[in-house]
Amino acid sequence: MATIGVRIFQHHKKKDGTYNVKISVCHKREMAYIRTTHYLSHRKLNSDLSIKSYVVNRALFKVLDDYREMISMFDDRLEMINAKELRDLLVDNFKSIDFLSYCKAYVVKLAHSDRKESASNYRTCYYSLIDFFNREHVGFNEITVNTIEEYQSYLKKERILFRQSRDGSLNKMVSPGLSDNSISGYLIHFKAFFNSGRKYYNNNSYGITRIKNTPFDYFKIPARKDTKKRSLTIEQVACIKNCEVAPGSIAELAKDLFMLSFYLCGMNAVDLYAYNYEVRNGRVEYDRSKTKGKRKDNAFISIKLIPAAKILLNRYKDINKRYKTVNNLNKAINKGLKRIGKNIECPELTFYAARHTFASLARNSCRISKDDVAAALNHVDQTLRVTDIYIAKDWSIIDRVQRSVVKHLNQHSKILPTSAIQNYYNI
After folding, report:
1. How many Å is the maximal CA-CA distance in the chain?
2. E strand intervals along 49-108
3. What is the pTM of this model?
4. Is 225 contained in some domain?
5. H or E stretch including 103?
6. Residue 223 domain flag
7. Which long-range contacts (CB under 8 A, 24 or more apart) does 65-70 make?
8. Alpha helices in 342-394 (DSSP H)
9. pLDDT at 173 over 80
10. Are residues 117 and 138 in the same domain?
11. Is residue 227 assigned to a domain?
12. Which residue, 390, 361, 388, 364, is CA-closest to 375?
């Protein structure tokens, strides 16, 4: 049986003559103590060090009642812990839990888990929440359905933001309202922050629910709308492959890495930048950064290193020395692609179009099955995850998809009219 009381120790007298009031936790013949915010002088104490002050006693009685009520909820589980563990549970349960501090820790954890792209997305949401609340500390108990709805409305409107520059000055920025799909993405991250925090702080083993509110159970995040497909025609890819660019230019970087991604079945820039791949027996093998933390196979894939891809891979194997971060690399690639895109009637051309285009051509032009296209993209069919455990990987399936798409491109490159091959030396 655990008991709770108030204790003041004679030998804990401070230099200013006051004593700190402690709450004692006695359990299994062991003692543990919780420091309070109360400091009392001799005038407020009786000769036996009991407390005279009515105000302090009333405050302490309320705390003791709360602790006793919590202890009664443990039932038989109380026998599983000692006095110090009980003390820690009591203290933690009544601490104010900072939601934004947890969000920050969540982002750091993602970054340390080599999920840098996810960390970047969550970091953007974290900063937007700080802008929304206009403070850096917000309790979990402050997150309600109304809060979520207000945040959703906030994202829709044009916002004036202030960002600190390197010299310490504040720069004023005008941020336009976000699209419906972008808002859904922010809300998904917001929900993930909150629900992860509930799972972390609530201890079901001991029946402790420190975060009781569940606002996202009563708020439906709008479904994302289908976006315009970012895939190119085979003629546009052929133009990119054959176009002339200034050596060493940003257009050359964009062209080469776009084609490298295309040849390697839509390999992401982050995997090229991180150099987390190995070349073995004429194949590029790596764990896909975007999904390796979500899959038991670490999203491993093995792709044949065809001659055209080998030249480009060797040319850019030290790309992480040229750009400080993968975000900087992505910006450079997309800047170069926008220049190229203007000449192939695709002004919004981005790096990710290489992956989309590879998949679309494989399915629609080469008539590859959706399952085989998914394998080449290193996707997992959620409905077949159990079945996949029993099936050994057959990389020849991916080789066939790759061979079909590259052959299709080469055929169109040969018949591409000279007028369609753009000259980019002046951009």
Report:
1. 103
2. none
3. 0.58
4. no
5. helix 99-112
6. no
7. 66/94, 67/4, 67/23, 68/4, 70/208
8. 353-360, 370-376, 385-389
9. no
10. yes
11. no
12. 388
